[in-house]
């Protein structure tokens, strides 16, 4: 298990993303994936109140509801670290104290629990002063509805400003961030956010850890993949994408493991990374991710992957 930032939360090396639960994974598949993940030793679930509000006929909250029904069915809430987010739910957007006070009650109800272990603000709401957001979150922690808070999709400067405001006022402090970070998307995180996390002892729980599926290795020149992300990922088959795939293939073969596990292992080895987030619609997809828990790459292998990810795109 891995200590999450400055909290006392102990999380597994792979965080199971809940974006697909209640969306492309129906109730039966969601239950099977959640069961397989916990049976393999996983304990860290990530969701958001607005998942899957973008789907026609959905209003948001479907992922939280799916997880809530499963936890009630299995009676395993106390063995899990549950993270959700506030700020992007249709009709309940932003990070003002009034929004977070209402949104947390809805999330608790959908999750069928009395507390949220890690409550992220889903984005940096620049229309709201950081003091108001943090004051509202502090109230939720003092009420026992939330254990710890995190920041998602922030800039380094705004994170530093928020941490300073917490220290100044004696309010709850962010313990973790959730930023996009993977072998193909590095500059934004490494050029600023990484140093703030190191200075303050915070963890990153990277989202889009597999670059929307590209780093699973299923996208290759000449192959057609049936996915709503196919067009985006086919555009990644440039010089850099092909160099990364070649390095992943070579290292996966050496360890007799999956390309996805190698990509996640590189990410897990980076400073400040706690537990990369990855989703699975089926148990078979989850099986490709789980080896990351035991996979340790050599220094040479890590350097090789980093170098491949630095190849110019064209």
Structural descriptors:
NADP_OxRdtase_dom; globular; 8-stranded parallel sheet; 42% helix; TIM Barrel; oxidoreductase activity; AKR; 11 helices; NADP-dependent aryl-alcohol dehydrogenase; NAD(P)_OxRdtase_dom_sf; 314 residues; alpha/beta
Task: Please explain how this structure is put together.
The protein has helices at 27-39, 62-74, 97-111, 130-142, 156-169, 187-200, 230-234, 239-255, 259-268, 283-289, 299-309, and strands at residues 2-3, 10-11, 15-17, 44-46, 81-86, 88-89, 92-93, 116-121, 146-152, 174-178, 203-204, 277-278. It is an alpha/beta fold. It has one domain: NADP-dependent oxidoreductase domain (TIM Barrel), CATH 3.20.20. An eight-stranded parallel β-sheet has the order 11-10-9-8-5-4-3-12, with helices on one face. The longest helix has 17 residues, at 239-255. The radius of gyration is 19 Å and the shape is globular.
Topology:
Layout: E1 2-3, E2 10-11, E3 15-17, H1 27-39, E4 44-46, H2 62-74, E5 81-86, E6 88-89, E7 92-93, H3 97-111, E8 116-121, H4 130-142, E9 146-152, H5 156-169, E10 174-178, H6 187-200, E11 203-204, H7 230-234, H8 239-255, H9 259-268, E12 277-278, H10 283-289, H11 299-309
Parallel strand pairs: 3-4, 3-12, 4-5, 5-8, 8-9, 9-10, 10-11
Antiparallel strand pairs: 1-2, 6-7
Helix pairs in contact: 2-3, 3-4, 5-6, 8-9, 8-11
Pfam family, one: Aldo_ket_red
Domain NADP-dependent oxidoreductase: 13-306
GO molecular function, one term: oxidoreductase activity
């Amino acid at each position: 298990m891995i200590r999450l930032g400055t909290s006392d939360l102990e999380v597994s090396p792979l965080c199971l993303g809940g974006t697909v639960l209640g969306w492309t994974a129906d109730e039966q598949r969601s239950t099977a994936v959640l069961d397989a993940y916990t049976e393999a030793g996983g304990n860290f679930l990530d969701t958001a109140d607005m998942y899957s509000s973008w789907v026609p006929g959905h209003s948001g909250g479907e992922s939280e509801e799916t997880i809530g029904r499963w936890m009630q069915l299995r009676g395993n809430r106390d063995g899990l670290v549950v993270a959700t987010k506030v700020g992007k739910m249709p009709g309940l957007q932003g990070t003002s104290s009034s929004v977070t006070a209402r949104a947390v009650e809805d999330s608790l109800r959908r999750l069928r629990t009395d507390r949220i272990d890690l409550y992220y603000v889903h984005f940096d709401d620049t229309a709201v002063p950081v003091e108001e957001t943090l004051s509202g979150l502090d109230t939720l922690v003092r009420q026992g509805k939330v254990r710890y808070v995190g920041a998602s999709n922030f800039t380094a400067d705004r994170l530093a400003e928020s941490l300073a405001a917490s220290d100044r006022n004696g309010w709850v402090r962010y313990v973790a961030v959730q930023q996009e970070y993977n072998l193909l998307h590095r500059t934004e995180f490494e050029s600023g956010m990484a140093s703030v996390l190191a200075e303050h002892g915070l963890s990153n729980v990277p989202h889009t850890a597999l670059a929307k599926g590209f780093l699973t290795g299923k996208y290759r020149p000449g192959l057609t993949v049936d996915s709503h992300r196919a067009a985006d990922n086919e555009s990644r088959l440039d010089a850099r994408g092909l160099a990364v795939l070649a390095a992943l293939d070579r290292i996966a073969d050496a360890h007799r493991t999956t390309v996805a596990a190698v990509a996640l292992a590189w990410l897990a080895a980076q400073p400040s990374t706690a537990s990369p987030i990855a989703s699975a619609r089926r148990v078979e997809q989850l099986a490709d991710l789980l080896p990351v828990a035991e996979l340790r790459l050599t220094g040479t292998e890590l350097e090789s992957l980093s170098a491949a990810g630095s190849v110019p795109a064209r």
